[in-house]
Design a protein that fits this description.
Radius of gyration of chain B: 21 Å
Strand content of chain B: 15-25%
Chains: A alpha/beta, B alpha/beta, C mainly alpha, D mainly alpha
Strand content of chain A: 25-35%
Helix content of chain A: 25-40%
CATH class of the largest domain in chain A: Alpha Beta
Number of domains of chain A: 2
CATH superfamily of the largest domain in chain A: P-loop containing nucleotide triphosphate hydrolases
Structural class of chain A: alpha/beta
Strand order of the largest sheet of chain A: 6-7-8-3-9-10
Distance between the termini of chain B: 31 Å
Order of helices and strands of chain B: HHEEHEHEHEHEHEHEHEHEHHEHEE
CATH topology of the largest domain in chain A: Rossmann fold
CATH superfamily of the largest domain in chain B: Response regulator
Oligomer: heterotetramer
Largest sheet of chain B: 4 strands, parallel
Mean pLDDT of chain B: 89
Radius of gyration of chain A: 17 Å
Mean pLDDT of chain A: 89
CATH topology of the largest domain in chain B: Rossmann fold
Low-confidence stretches of chain B: 1-23
Largest sheet of chain A: 6 strands, mixed
Distance between the termini of chain A: 32 Å
Largest interface: C-D, 48 and 44 residues
Helix content of chain B: 40-55%
Number of strands of chain B: 13
Low-confidence stretches of chain A: none
Shape of chain A: globular
Number of strands of chain A: 10
CATH architecture of the largest domain in chain B: 3-Layer(aba) Sandwich
Strand order of the largest sheet of chain B: 3-2-4-5
CATH architecture of the largest domain in chain A: 3-Layer(aba) Sandwich
Order of helices and strands of chain A: EEEHEEHEHHHHEHEHEEHH
Chain lengths: 237, 405, 347, 290
């Protein structure tokens, strides 16, 4: 399998503070990679840096194309959908409008309409609230909306920032089940940042462990799952 | 008095040093052998910036005097004209700058009523000549209390009174609507108007409405006056609102007798924009020749003024009233400076300013002469009524003033 | 408004610069005893204007910078302060100094009361409400019913106080010190407020309004109080302006004044105490500088037109915001952080 | 009663002026989340451009179209050149920039065209609609154009993806980028459109109030109030708000407290409304769940 995303020597800063140090990262076509680590390890920064949303250095190659100098918008247009930290809901727009926003970069309107149907099929609760102002949705619904929005971009790679954050376990289960479906059915590769390591390890086939902006270890998820010292030291279970 | 008369005589023909001139070569602050520094504040910005035309024109006038006549008695006039944005505290700051830092000899044509009020006391304490104040308030003619301040144009109060007298003479039971800007100018005019009506006849006023300088339009006020049944309106506005009012009144098909104050009677800045057809029959009072009226075309002062405008201030709009009034004021100022001879002290300047006898000033209506005395600080007091006909003002009636009117 | 780190402004960091500044401000005018320069008094007057603006901006900064409530209407409180002083001096014959605390108290009251409706309004809506205040006050001052007290459109003319004999100071020198002392007093009060519990509460409300509420901070109390104190301080500036200009009129307190306070605040630096001084000086100097640049351009390029000073003012402001989007003190702080940060990494 | 109707109509027509200006404010607000204090001066400047073109012999409509296009380009230019570098600056720094722009345009217009008022032509016939001086064709024309612009804007924002993208960019820029929206260009587009709307407003207003550099200063205050009272995120609300302020101001001036305090009083009433309905009469409350 070829790599869909290849990151070499990625460094990033928050203001004057350096948050990432020479990170190397590869995501296989169709694979799900988990990025784990404690708070402040640089996971969110990695996602932001891939999409050029923060000051950064290093090269990013997406599908064989060097996107290091691309703007966020262009990276997204190439097929990287990000579900950002805090869900990024457009609170003043309706649910429908939140999703239809993707139409303006989709050339194939018919295809896009089908994607919209898919989103509603995956998240029937969004369909129930289609005309509702997105700010009035519950946290779980907003998370679904965020995934739905990313899906509307017809991405080949999805970057997910803590999809489980602040949600009830049942809803988390549901969302992860749907993510799995997206991965399998739509053949969308994924890079997922999670606090809930156990859950992420279920979904992911590959894992990177981050500590203070550096990769500590990486490998197939089975390896990490079975390495108790590693789990205890970095994942806390 | 004796001394003053002598210097006045001197001023008349003095360019070379005479024996007396050498003896009396005395300078106050801001004067040297080559220069006289004069200070001025004008609203070049802000709500009243339309008036800033005057300062620019006077700068051009002094440039002309400096370049063609070598200045006044060999001294060039250096006019420092600053923008106070029509804000009184700013005027105080700038006038202090002019007086204390730049050391001007005197102030000339500082514009605005509130702005001049703010510096009134200061300049009199500092004994700075504060001449030809560009405001029609009546307080500038009070030599007992403020011996260093002197106004210029016929005051608003007198003008208001003239309208009232004319109205009473032509209409036995008018129903008067007053539209006025809510400021000193509005108040002064209306007070004079009240005085002219007398206490008992004030009942003729059926509507007295105000507007603020920041209001977009005066449409509502005009409807209010019409609704009150007015058949005469006294229009005390600044040019922009005057034009709006004239246009609106014509638009609603209302035909009251219309008195328009002189500050808003400029042909170029009011009557033409409002549409001359809408302004027919409007009455105003004037002390200056309406330069748009062809009947004055052959008068030498008008010709000279036109030549001046064309050469020295070519970008200005000659139809704008300020360009005539500020020219006349600058002319008078230069005459006063000339009359000081070589005794350019602040005291002598005030003495000369307070002893003007029948000075003829260009662009004034025939018969109007400038007169002052130590207890008369109102240089101009006469006006004549005019009616708008065709595309210019047509004078009628006698010369009117507070005393004769 | 994003969270602003202002620890450096209220304590330590660049504090020594501020101290030096105050000392210079206090010592500078003593030059008056040695100079014969006739423009000295004028410079003292400029100094008064700057300090008065500084006080007004300080009041505004307390509200906007440290409490996150916007006001486009502080000219109104400035006017109330000025008219309080003018009316007391003119009609009650009070000495000028006695009117200042009264002006402060009345403005505090006005601000405090205004703080209640302000509680319900946020951002643009609060801007509109305060904007209304700025527009209404000059109109109210002219209103017929109270024209007897306010002097109506003509305003009130005051006597400029003389310096007390024993000080041996010139009038303007003396008034300068009066302004300076009151400015220092205001700074002292604000600084103590900010360092204490109330300051922490105010800033917590600014940064996380909802969280502050849940943390048990009485948001309404602090917001209204801040509004009051802010208005009170600005009112002192107004009172001083009435005394030093010796004239109050409705045209002196237009919306433009409120805007110039806001400009001074932003140019000096939001949530920076020394920034208030910078801003106060800026709004006095910028207009004169624009005029000078305009004159210079006309002469140098022998232009036929006057380049309008206000166009130059606009360009200068934009350039300033371009290079120092967080104001002059914000710019200095960034520079300072860069320098100190480099030192740390080297160590 | 007739007087009441007259004042009502006068209020509606001045309300149309405010509504027109409010629309421009809403345009910038919806697309950039800012209130542009220079909106009025930009409109004034565009109107002067039209005047200058007519002065050199352009036909009215030619000048109208050119001025609107120039305004659009000018607005785009202002955003790209002046405001883009300040995208990350604090809001108040932007406000200062708007004030700077206001000063600049006002002074520049004064220099180029002087502060003397100028008449501005109108495309509407000088006709009285009912023959009693109540409504002139010009006034009716303003109302009509305002309503048409409102219609276009509503359709644009509500039913086109570009309009949707602009709204999204204003509400949450970083999230919009992640949806592939070129946020910076959306802001520029918003400025361009607002400037174009401003130009139309300026050219409609100028025949009534006369063209001068301070023409819009007073109107902007009313427009601002109108936009807020109706709900600044909503073109429909802003237009309604403009009408409300116009009518309120005239009726208050005629019946309640006289002309001296009518603006203050009308504004105070607006603030009163906002206290009861914090998002404006027609504004939608954006509910945030924590």
């Amino acid at each position: 399998m070829a790599a869909i995303l290849d990151v070499k020597g990625l460094s990033a800063w928050y203001g004057p503070i350096r948050a990432l140090y020479d990170l190397d990262l590869t995501i296989e076509q169709g694979g799900v990679t988990a990025l784990l680590g404690a708070n402040g390890a640089g996971k969110t920064t990695t996602l932001r840096a891939i999409c050029n949303m923060t000051r950064r250095a290093g090269t990013t190659t997406f599908d064989g194309k060097d996107i290091s100098k691309f703007t966020t918008e262009d990276i997204v247009r190439l097929g990287i959908g990000q579900v950002p930290e805090g869900r990024g809901t457009f609170t003043g727009l309706s649910v429908d409008e939140n999703l239809r926003l993707a139409f303006h970069i989709r050339k194939d309107r018919a295809e896009a309409m089908r994607d919209m149907d898919l989103v509603f099929e995956l998240f029937p609760r969004l369909k129930e609230r289609i005309k509702q102002q997105a700010g009035t949705l519950s946290g779980g619904e907003q998370q679904m909306l965020a995934v739905g929005r990313a899906l509307m971009l017809a991405p080949r790679l999805m970057l997910l920032d803590e999809p489980s954050f602040g949600l009830a376990p049942l809803i988390v289960q549901e969302i992860f089940r749907i993510l799995k479906r997206i991965n399998v059915e739509k053949k969308v590769s994924m890079l997922i940042v999670e606090q809930n390591a156990a859950l992420a390890l279920e979904l992911a086939d590959h894992v990177y462990l981050l500590e203070t902006g550096r990769v500590v270890t990486q490998g197939p998820s089975e390896l990490v799952k079975n390495d108790e010292t590693l789990r205890k030291a970095y994942l806390g279970y | 008095m004796k001394l003053a008369r002598r210097s006045a005589l001197l001023g008349a023909g003095l360019t070379i040093l005479s024996r007396e001139g050498r003896a009396e070569k005395k300078y106050g602050p801001g004067v040297t052998d080559t220069e006289i520094k004069v200070g001025q504040t004008q609203p070049y910005s802000g709500n009243a910036s339309a008036y800033g035309v005057a300062g620019r024109n006077q700068a051009a006038y002094f440039r002309m005097i400096n370049e063609t006549q070598g200045g006044v008695n060999g001294r060039k006039i250096n006019l420092i004209s600053l923008d106070d944005g029509y804000s009184p505290p700013k005027t105080v700051e700038l006038v202090r700058q002019l007086v204390e830092r730049d050391q001007v000899f005197c102030l000339f044509y500082t514009l605005g009523t509130q702005t001049n009020t703010a510096i009134h006391k200061y300049v009199n304490q500092k004994k700075i000549p504060h001449l030809i104040v560009a405001s029609g308030a009546s307080k500038w003619g009070n030599p007992k209390q403020f011996p260093w301040t002197m106004g210029w144009q016929p005051d608003y109060h007198t003008e208001g009174l003239i309208y009232a007298k004319h109205l009473l003479a032509t209409n036995k039971s008018p129903k008067i609507g007053i539209l006025r800007q809510n400021d000193d100018m509005g108040n002064d005019y209306v007070e004079g108007f009240h005085e002219g009506l007398t206490e008992t006849l004030k009942k003729f006023i059926v509507s007295d409405v105000t507007y603020e300088a920041t209001d977009p339009t005066v449409d509502s006020q005009i409807l209010q006056m019409r609704n009150a049944g007015a058949d005469v309106i006294f229009n005390v506005t600044t040019p922009k609102f005057a034009a709006q009012a004239i246009k609106k009144i014509a638009e609603i098909g209302w035909k009251p007798t219309h008195y328009l104050v002189s500050v808003a009677a400029s042909v170029g800045a009011v009557m033409r924009p409002a549409g001359v057809e809408n302004g027919q029959g409007i009455l105003t009072a004037q002390y200056l020749k309406d330069v748009t009226d062809p009947r004055w075309d052959d008068f030498p002062d008008v010709k000279e003024w036109r030549a001046f405008m064309a050469k020295w201030n070519p970008t200005a709009n000659v139809l704008e009233g300020s360009n005539a009034s500020s020219y006349a004021a600058a002319y008078a100022f230069v005459r006063i400076l000339k009359s000081c001879g070589d005794e350019l002290t602040r005291e002598n300047l005030m003495r000369q300013a307070a002893n003007i006898k029948n000075m003829e000033v260009p662009l004034m209506l025939p018969g109007i002469k400038v007169n002052t005395s130590p207890d008369n600080f109102y240089p101009l007091q006469s006006m004549q009524l005019a009616r708008f006909e065709g595309d210019h003002w047509v004078l009628f009636g006698d010369m009117l003033s507070r005393h004769k009117g | 408004m994003a969270a602003i780190d202002n620890s450096w402004a209220t304590k330590g960091g660049l504090g020594w610069i501020a101290t030096t500044f105050w000392v210079l401000l206090a010592v500078g005018p003593l030059a008056g005893f040695f100079t014969q320069d006739p423009s000295f008094e004028y410079y003292m007057f400029m100094g008064q204007s700057m300090l008065i603006n500084t006080i007004a901006i300080l009041g505004l900064n307390l509200l906007i910078g440290f409490n996150g409530q916007i006001s486009l209407g502080h000219s109104a409180f400035f006017a109330i302060g000025a008219y309080t002083t003018a009316i007391l001096m003119n009609f009650a014959g009070w000495p000028y100094y006695a009117t200042i605390p009264v002006a402060a108290i009345i403005c505090f009251g006005a601000g405090f009361l205004f703080g209640f409706p302000a509680l319900k309004l946020e951002g643009h809506y609060l801007a509109l409400a305060t904007f209304t205040l700025a527009i209404a006050v000059p109109q109210l001052l002219k209103y017929k019913a109270i024209a007897g007290w306010t002097g109506g459109v003509g305003g009130l003319i005051l006597d400029k106080p003389d310096a007390p004999e024993f000080t041996r100071l010139g009038t303007d020198q003396y008034l300068y010190y009066l302004c300076l002392i009151l400015a220092m007093l205001s700074f002292w009060i604000v600084r103590n407020m900010l360092r204490g519990r109330s300051g922490r509460a105010m800033m917590a409300i600014r940064d996380h309004a909802m969280a502050a509420g849940t943390m048990g901070i009485d948001t309404a109390k602090y917001k209204t109080l801040t509004f009051g104190v802010s208005a009170g301080i600005t009112g002192v500036g107004g009172a001083l302006s009435a005394i030093t200009v010796a004239y109050v009129a409705p045209d002196s307190f237009t919306l433009q004044l409120a805007v110039s306070f806001l400009v001074g605040l932003v140019v000096g630096g939001i949530a920076s105490l020394p920034g208030c001084l910078v801003g106060g000086a800026f709004i006095v100097l910028i207009q004169n500088s624009s005029q000078s640049i305009s004159d210079w351009m006309k002469v140098t390029f022998s232009l036929r037109y006057d380049v309008p000073a206000w166009a130059i003012y606009g360009i200068l402001l934009i350039l300033l915001m371009y290079f120092m989007p967080r104001g002059i003190m914000g710019g200095i702080e960034t520079l300072w952080l860069k320098l100190t940060h480099r030192k740390e990494t080297q160590a | 009663m007739e007087f009441f109707i007259q004042q009502l109509v006068a209020g509606l027509t001045s309300g149309a002026i405010y509504a027109c200006v409010a629309l421009g404010l809403v345009m910038i607000f919806v697309s950039t989340d800012h209130i542009n204090f220079a909106q009025g001066e930009m409109a004034m400047f565009a109107t002067y451009l039209a005047w200058a073109m007519i002065d050199v012999g352009f036909s009215y409509w030619m000048a109208f179209v050119c001025a609107v296009l120039l305004a659009f380009v000018g607005g785009l230019f202002i955003q790209r050149v002046i405001l883009k570098p300040l995208e990350t600056a604090p809001v108040l720094s932007l406000v200062v920039c708007f004030i700077a722009l206001l000063s600049f345009f006002n002074a520049l217009a004064g220099m180029l065209w002087s502060f003397t008022i100028k008449p501005f032509p109108t495309p509407f016939p000088p006709k009285d609609i009912f023959g009693n001086g109540l409504v002139s064709a010009q006034q009716l024309g303003i109302v009509a154009v305002t309503v048409i612009m409102l219609g276009i804007l509503t359709v644009f924002f509500r039913y086109t993806t570009l309009g949707l993208a602009m709204r999204a960019a204003a509400q949450n820029a970083s999230s919009a980028r992640l949806m592939g929206v070129r946020v910076s260009w959306m802001l520029a587009l918003g400025w361009g459109l607002a400037a174009a709307i401003g130009a139309v407003a300026g050219m409609l207003v100028a025949p009534i109030v006369f063209l001068d550099p301070n023409m819009m200063t007073g109107i902007l205050v009313y427009g601002f109030a109108g936009a807020l009272v109706g709900g600044i995120g909503n073109p429909m609300g802003a237009v309604a708000g403009g009408f409300i302020v116009g009518v309120l101001e005239n009726l208050v001036g005629s019946y309640l407290i006289g002309n001296e305090l009518k603006l203050s009083f009308a504004l105070a009433m607006v603030v009163g409304v906002l206290l009861l309905k914090p998002a404006g009469i027609f504004g939608q409350v954006i509910v945030r769940r924590v």
